[in-house]
Amino acid sequence: MAGVEIGGLSTVYPNGVRAVDGLDLGVVDGELFALLGPSGCGKTTLLRTIAGLEQATDGKVLIGGRDVTREQPGSRGVAMVFQDYALFPHMTVAENIAYPLRVRRAPKARQREVAERTAAGLSLSGLLDRRPGQLSGGQQQRTALARAVAVEADVLLLDEPLSNLDARLRLEARTFLKRLQRELALTTVFVTHDQAEALALADRIAVMESGRIRQLGTPREVFQRPADTFVANFIGSTPMNLLDGVVRGDGVECVGALLPLPADLADGTPVVVGVRPEYLTVAAEGIAGRVSIVENLGVTSLVTLECAGGTLVGLTVPEQEEPAVGDALHACPAPGRLLCYGEDGLLLGAV
Amino acid sequence: MAGLGVARAVGFVAPALLLVGVFLVFPALWTLYIGVTDYQLTGPAAAAPSAVGLDNFAAVLDDALFTNSLWLTALFVLGSAVVGQNALGFALAWLLRRVRPWLRRTTEGLVLLAWILPGPVVAYLWFAVLSRDGGTLGLLLDDPTTAWLVQYPMVSLVVFNVWRGTAFSMLLYTSALAAVPPSQLETARLVGANGWQAVRDVVFPHIRGHVLTNTLLISLWTANDFTPFLLTAGGPNHESEVLPVLIYRQALEGGRLGYASAMSSLLLVGNLVVALVYLRLLRRRA
Questions:
Q1: If you placed Cys at A90, which of A116, A245, B13, B205 could pair as Cys (CB 3.0 to 4.6 Å)?
Q2: How is chain B split into domains, by residue range?
Q3: A287-296 sheet: strands from edge to edge
Q4: pLDDT of amino acid B284
Q5: Chain B neighbors of A105, CB-CB under 8 A
Q6: A28 Cβ partners below 8 Å, 6+ apart?
Q7: Which stretches of chain A are DSSP H helices?
Q8: What CATH superfamily classification does A4-225 receive?
């Protein structure tokens, strides 16, 4: 077991692209850590650099306190599950799981024993003699996980572990993955572009963009207090409302409403007000608008208000309180959930 | 009915079929036919050949020159195709995956050049390299006494054919390797597999079919290759007389067309047997 320390890490591709750009990061021993970001943000390159599949241009990677920056992938003590699982199609499930032992020339009996034991832990017992082609997507994923945990690696790396599964299976696999990680207490870093997956699985999340970390925190912190407008935009299944406002006295004038001001700012400073649709409620006062669209999300509905100057503001309402299209109403932010960003996009405060 | 209709379709393919018939099917059948006659290039038997049954075949199998050629051909195929071109072609394809694009393109271009140049041109180039009198290799090694083509004729032929034919294997393996999922190779690297283990456990199972197809094709091409005649003409003293060379010399220098045709038929049977073995291996994979 070991943590991962990354200091000043850069990975530059031969074509000059800085996929990872002077990045610092610490993953604690036993933690389930998510690297989250849009495609091309460098999250997969970072994962591959930890694994040693990409060569770091600059900086250090430490695993369990040992500098492995120049070590071969095979001697870093990492195991990795690829997005396509990378199962060997000509080997049975048992042979796939025991492959790391075969490379180390372990006796055949020991290979079989480890394969059986690992398979039992991942509900694969009846499938040991099948080929990957005869397995369902979920079984293939579990086989790949079994191969990765069959030898005791210090760190488990997962590249988009759930993206090749269909929607229903994905939820099951998510729960399974989290339970497995808790049982093994194995330091795990996974890459995902799906914010819901990161929020649900991870102990901590690093939100990445252009090879840098925009925010590092627990799912709650990242969801409730996004450090900048990029993260605010990226996290959340319904996009956060980001509205232009101007400081007026001790409040913010925003879409015709005067909202509380979270920080001490000079009169007339332009700011961006951020509030999630989930944290807006229908009230007697607040942002005034007319209902233009109602989208049913199941337990709640997403209502889009058309406000002064044509600005659109989203809020969610409980299923019984759905307004009719054309209704005029006010939306008021929940206490502590109104975020205020400066012109540079950085969080100034919440109120 | 859709399409041209049978009559017009036949009309369109007829010219091609005619050419194939005249230049491929007829000579092949003709070879089989004269193999059972005493047909000669000149003399009375040229005018009026008579059927001799399987006498030619019996005589061929009893002929020390034929046995010698058979052995040399097997050596030639094994050394230059099955081992030489296969191994070098795979090695080039494997190593060129990771080098800089300009180096890969240059190497591939040079290897391909050896393949697309006409046989007589290439043979002349190698003659100039290996010849004793002012040959390039002799000059490079500062050794004006070794006549490579005379003293080491089979080695020279094997090296020549590897040099000439590797391009095909290289191209085939390059595209085969592109179909091996990178994540599987990376998985092997991550569990600490060395290069040989990765090839054995990950690459080879993926390209098994390509290896068999490639080996079959280059084996047959090499077994039927006539270019050795241009380098050594079978000499010295039959030491490099592979079957196509022996057949040519029997037919056109010895004038024994029937006898040489029997040899050709046996070479054909040999090719068929080799092809059947490969096909059996291929099918067992599926």
A1: B205
A2: 56-285
A3: A280-283, A328-333, A287-296, A300-307, A312-318
A4: 77
A5: none
A6: A3, A187
A7: 43-51, 93-97, 99-103, 108-121, 137-150, 167-184, 195-201, 219-224, 229-234
A8: P-loop containing nucleotide triphosphate hydrolases (3.40.50.300)
Residues of B in contact with A75 (CB under 8 A): 192
> Where does residue A230 rank: exposed (0-12), middle (13-18), buried (19+ CB within 10 A)?
middle
| Residue A150: closest CA among B198, B196, B190, B180 | B190
pLDDT in tens, B35-81: 888 888 887 777 778 888 888 888 888 888 999 999 999 999 999 99
Contact yes or no for B183 and A99 at CB 8 A? no
Global confidence as pTM: 0.81
The verdict on domain B56-285 having CATH code 1.20.1260.10 is no
Residues facing residue A104 across a β-bridge: none
Domain positions in chain A are 4-225, 241-350
The tokens for A228 are: 């900048």
Quick one: DSSP state of residue B202? I
Partner-chain contact B190 A78, CB within 8 Å: yes
pLDDT in tens, A238-267: 889 999 999 988 888 888 888 888 777 888
- Which of B104, B187, B203, B207 to mutate: most A Cβ within 10 Å? B187
Q: Domain A241-350 adopts which CATH fold?
A: OB fold (Dihydrolipoamide Acetyltransferase, E2P) (2.40.50)
Please provide the distance, in angstroms rounded to a whole number, between the alpha carbons at the two ends of chain B: 38
